[in-house]
Specification:
61 residues; mainly alpha
């Protein structure tokens, strides 16, 4: 059973990735976690959709 810390760490890395680039260790850790955690995969998809919607809105204004 994974700890909640790992999911919290994953969401922080997801946010960081949307704002910029992760280093290779962060990227590998996040990728591995997403392969094992369905809830975080769902969260990541939602983060990306929200980020895309914000970018689209920003461009149209």
């Amino acid at each position: 059973m994974k700890s909640m810390y790992s999911c919290k760490h994953a969401t922080a890395l997801m946010s960081k990735q949307l704002d910029g680039r992760l280093n290779w260790r962060e990227w590998l850790w996040l990728y591995t976690h997403l392969m094992m955690c369905a809830n975080c995969r769902r969260c990541y998809r939602q983060f990306r959709q929200l980020h895309k919607a914000c970018e689209t809105r920003r461009r149209s204004s």
